[in-house]
Write a structure and sequence with these properties.
Pfam families: BTAD, NB-ARC, TPR_12, Trans_reg_C
Protein name: Tetratricopeptide repeat protein
Number of helices: 45
Number of domains: 6
Number of strands: 17
Oligomer: single chain
Family: Belongs to the AfsR/DnrI/RedD regulatory family.
Keywords: DNA-binding, Transcription, Transcription regulation, Two-component regulatory system
CATH topology of the largest domain: Serine Threonine Protein Phosphatase 5, Tetratricopeptide repeat
């Protein structure tokens, strides 16, 4: 049975009875027996009675014998041991009879044999232990094939089949032996999964589990090896060394032995930062003519990279002589290196085409593309056809051309084709020949062609090409500047060649000087010119071939920044219906000026976008037309962000005070789809708000930040949000718009707070509350004081926090903003908690939770549960606290609030420590540390490290604890936090 079959067996359900004349119903599904948890018999969705504990002991013993019979004596010893009661044998027979009755007429059968019994499973019956063994076999096979990701997933499936303690509640000496063996099997399985996880690069994700396992099994040296390796690969060398020290001390204290050689060797390799410890880096002619044309252009001497493309195209060309002619069509923007690649591949494949190679530049990008009839005449002459024999018409020439190529092995390279119509007559008609075609157009209508979309170079390839032209020494000396240069070139080969040629011709220039010249986006295209090579001229050729409607679409799309643009956003930008916009955008994709990043999403190469923007400034007149397009795009983003906000925060009055929109916004079937949109569009939404923060669209830009505030708490977009808020705030101050300034200010303060810059957050929120009109704007008034209260709470200034929360509550209540009021109550609960007023802390959090529940809120409900969980932890109601924090974690996970996911794991670690569960506390803290590694700021990370140190110390790992406290001390000192003093004391005490 395979792993997949095992999964299917767990979910089979009987099929409904079919009507007359229908095919016979499938056979009833088999039974599923479980021993990796409670001993049960599943019949589809129902469970058959397994009887008393001793009866389950009989069932378990027979199942684990895998069909082999057991004598009555063996069964008596297994269930009761040497002290079996006098009536044990008849009782055993009674149990056997009951099991037969429970199994009924199913395929699984309990049979009498050899004076005892055997349980024989039918072909459709399954045992969870058997499923595990099948999955492990598949995992081991995947590991042998170096498919670490698949192996890790399979091991994970196997682990998930354990449902608690094996043979749970089953008595008897045999059950004890089996239980010990199965528990050891699970531990070995988890060890194997963690080992393959490190091979798959999942070191950061494995640390928390390894920490918990080594705490629970301190003498298991392989687990400690894996923990040390995982910590080292996470950049936590000191903790890896401390883990060794803890393990060595435990082995000496408990067993009086030194660690085994492998563990000691790993310790030494970590000490010396052995590079080998780094993660593994995740081919008879129809005419008497004998002419053999050799028309290929010279290959460039500095051809670089493209190895996968070279192999792919080479393999296609190597298929000549089959049943179908090989045709490959390369498409891509101007300057991406289509011709260079095609010529390189053609030269490499010359041995496959001993009868010659034909070449033609079809000039498809020019105003006068090559006439296929004229090209055919040139090809015929090259193939040896006398001038007098060349027909006049295109079709006659094409027929003669194909006749001359019959049974010959010739490669035809058709460069710079305009479209498929220009190419068709020039293709050979025999399978012994092949054709390579390059074009800016994707030749989806060229039947049988192998289509290849050529993208820009990888950063490594770009640097290699740059170094070949400039010189390796200059690049080595200024590698960072060289990377900035090729990045400014958008990794486009033509741009890199031009930039490198300019630098090679100017020996007095540094690479940094060139990088600085290219850093100015408005001058970049002008800088990328050398002799008769110019990136702008290359793009201009493609732009000149577009229709008027395509040109307008192209240049307006250049106004939208971000990684890519959705169809609906582009339609709003263009002021068109989505269907009409999609037709134009897809036509631009076919020209290679626009890429289709995914269905319904479009993007431009960075240099193409700069060119499109320049075209907009030159051709989109009057200038107000550009501003109107950007305004339409912002209107769309604000309208849709407001819909997301409304789904996340039902009843929040903030929306009533935001700028009205003309666009209705997208409608989402559920909150998850709304969040998908917000996080997918985050970069484009924020960039558009920043660009539009002026004039009549200033207020809409500010309100877009308010509507999209969830982006700050996700962590992933905190920096982008912060930069946008800074720009919008500056624009609001320049405009003298006090309302816009207040709203931008609370957005920036909130952003500062979420990344852990408490001083900056306090300064910004204080600036907002000092504005004369702060109290008159319902959006600003409550939120500014709420933020100031949280900041005061972080600083343990409880009096100030309570004062600001009073003002926040008054503002929210005056506006009828229920969610705002509930938020302030949650925060007030934390103030009371800090003051030791535990009863009121719990009641306030419960009041906030009930308010959110009444409003139907989901995301904010998690915030209230978080506050309640903290209060219950302090009050000693640990079971309730665990339930609330677990629910909060689920809510934050559903709403993709990464910072709050990490902080909830931190609170769970606090709870585990309060419950005197140090191993579980350390594991939760490790998970929090992993989640908060790149989000939430250094202050929050320091808090987690401090707690992790305490949990490790509690679990007998003082060396690792001291390393964690030392890391926390460094972060606290860098942030200027008072907690540094306590960390210094702990580190100093641990060193004595």
């Amino acid at each position: 049975m395979t792993a997949g079959q095992g999964a299917d067996a767990r979910t089979r359900v009987p099929q409904p009875r079919q009507g007359a004349g229908a095919p016979p119903p499938p056979a009833a599904p088999g039974l599923r027996f479980t021993v990796l948890g409670p001993v049960l018999v599943h019949d589809g969705a129902s469970t058959l009675p397994a009887g008393t504990p001793q009866q389950r002991a009989l069932l378990a013993e027979l199942l684990l014998r895998r069909g082999r019979p057991a004598t009555a004596g063996e069964l008596l010893a297994a269930i009761w041991g040497i002290d079996a009661p006098t009536h044990a044998l008849p009782t055993l027979r009674t149990y056997a009879s009951r099991l037969r009755k429970a199994l009924g007429t199913r395929s699984a059968a309990l049979v009498s044999e050899a004076g005892g019994y055997a349980l024989r499973l039918g072909p459709d019956d399954t045992l969870d232990l058997g499923e595990v063994e099948s999955i492990i076999t598949a995992a081991e096979r995947a590991a042998e094939q170096d498919d670490a990701a698949r192996a890790h997933g399979l091991y994970g499936e196997a682990v998930e089949l354990w449902e608690g303690e094996p043979l749970a509640g089953v008595p008897g000496p045999a059950a004890e032996r089996h239980r010990d063996r199965l528990i050891e099997r699970l531990l070995s399985l988890r060890e194997a999964r963690l080992e393959i996880a490190l091979r798959a690069g999942l070191h950061a994700e494995s640390v928390s589990e390894l920490t918990a396992l080594t705490t629970a099994h301190p003498l298991r040296e392989r687990l400690r090896e894996l923990l040390m390796l995982a910590l080292y690969r996470c950049g936590r060398q000191a903790e890896a060394l401390a883990a060794y020290a803890d393990g060595r001390r435990i082995l000496i204290d408990e067993l009086g032995v030194e660690p085994r050689a492998e563990l000691a060797e790993l310790h030494q390799r970590i000490l010396t930062a052995d590079e080998a410890l780094a993660p593994e880096p995740q081919h008879d002619r129809a005419t008497d003519t004998v002419a053999e044309p050799r028309q290929l252009p010279a290959a460039v001497s500095d051809f670089t990279g493209r190895s996968s493309m070279v192999r792919e195209l080479g393999a296609r060309l190597a298929t000549v002589g089959g049943s179908v002619m090989a045709v490959s069509a390369l498409a891509g923007i101007g300057g991406v290196g289509k011709t260079t690649l095609a010529v390189h591949v053609a030269h490499a494949a010359r041995d496959h085409f001993p009868d010659g190679q034909l070449y033609a530049d079809l000039r498809g990008e020019s105003a006068g593309p090559a006439d296929p009839t004229a090209v055919l005449a040139a090809f015929l002459r090259a193939l040896g056809a006398p001038e007098a024999t060349i027909p006049e018409g295109r079709d006659e020439r094409a027929a003669l051309y194909r006749s001359l190529l019959d049974r010959r092995r010739v490669l035809v390279l058709l460069d710079n084709a305009r479209d498929a119509a220009q190419v068709r007559a020039l293709l050979p008609g025999t399978a012994t020949c092949a054709a390579l075609v390059t074009s800016r157009m994707r030749m989806i209508d060229l039947a049988g062609a192998h289509l290849v979309d050529l993208d820009v170079m990888s950063p490594e390839e770009a640097i290699e090409l740059f170094a070949k032209i400039v010189g390796a020494e200059r690049v080595r000396a200024e590698r960072e500047a060289a990377m900035d240069t090729v990045a400014a070139c958008g990794f486009l080969p033509l741009a890199i060649r031009i930039a490198a040629a300019r630098l090679a011709a100017r020996r007095t220039w540094t690479v940094a000087a060139l990088a600085r010249r290219l850093s100015d986006e408005r001058r970049r295209l002008d800088e990328l010119t050398a002799g008769d090579l110019a990136v702008k001229a290359t793009f201009e050729l493609g732009y000149g071939q577009l229709s008027p409607a395509q040109r307008r679409t192209f240049r307006l799309l250049g106004l939208a920044e971000g990684h890519d643009t959705s169809l609906h956003a582009a339609a709003a930008l263009l002021g068109q219906e989505p269907d009409q916009a999609e037709e134009l955008l897809e036509s631009l994709v076919d020209t290679s000026l626009v890429e289709s990043a995914a269905p319904g999403r479009y993007r431009m190469h960075d240099l193409v976008r700069l060119f499109a923007r320049a075209c907009a400034e030159r051709d989109e007149q009057p200038p107000a037309a550009r501003d109107a397009a950007l305004g339409r795009l912002l209107d769309f983003y604000l309208a849709t962000a407001k819909r997301v906000f409304a789904m996340e925060r039902p009843g929040d009055r903030t929306l009533d005070h935001l700028t009205a929109t003309r666009h209705p916004g997208l409608v989402f079937p559920h909150a998850d789809a709304a969040l998908d949109w917000l996080f997918t569009e985050a970069e484009s939404l924020l960039t558009t708000a920043r660009l539009a923060a002026r004039g009549s669209t200033l207020r809409a830009a500010v309100d877009t930040l308010i509507a999209a505030k969830d982006l700050t708490e996700s962590g992933a977009y905190a920096l982008h949000y912060e930069r946008c808020a800074e720009a919008v705030l500056a624009a609001a101050r320049d405009a003298g718009d006090e309302v816009a300034e207040g709203r931008a200010g609370i957005s920036l303060a909130h952003s500062h707070r979420m990344v852990g810059r408490i001083d900056d957050a306090e300064a910004e929120s204080a600036s907002v509350t000092a504005l004369p009109g702060c109290s008159s704007d319902p959006v600003t008034a409550g939120n500014a004081h709420n933020d100031r209260a949280i900041i005061a709470l972080y600083r343990e200034q409880l009096g100030q926090a309570e004062e600001h929360l009073g003002l926040a509550l008054a503002a929210f209540r005056a506006d009828g903003n229920g969610p705002g009021e509930a938020s302030a109550l949650s925060n007030l609960s934390r103030v009371h908690l800090g003051a030791g007023r535990l009863d009121s802390a719990v009641s306030l959090a419960e009041e906030a939770l009930e308010a959110y529940r009444t409003l139907g809120a989901t995301l904010r409900l998690a915030n209230a549960r978080y506050a309640l969980g903290m209060a219950l932890t302090a009050a000693g109601a640990h079971d309730r606290a665990l339930a609330e924090l677990s629910s909060a974690l689920e809510g934050f996970d559903t709403n993709r609030q990464q910072i709050w996911q990490g902080m909830t794991m931190f609170r769970l670690a606090e709870l585990r420590r309060a419950r005197r569960e140090p191993a579980e506390a350390a594991a939760s803290a490790e998970r929090a540390l992993t989640v908060l590694e790149h989000v939430g700021g250094e202050w929050r990370r320091a808090n987690v490290l401090s707690l992790l140190g305490h949990a490790l110390h509690d679990s007998g790992q003082p060396d690792r604890a001291r390393v964690c406290w030392g890391n926390a001390l460094e972060l606290y000192e860098r942030a200027g936090r008072p907690e540094a003093a306590e960390m210094r004391r702990l580190v100093d005490c641990g060193s004595q």
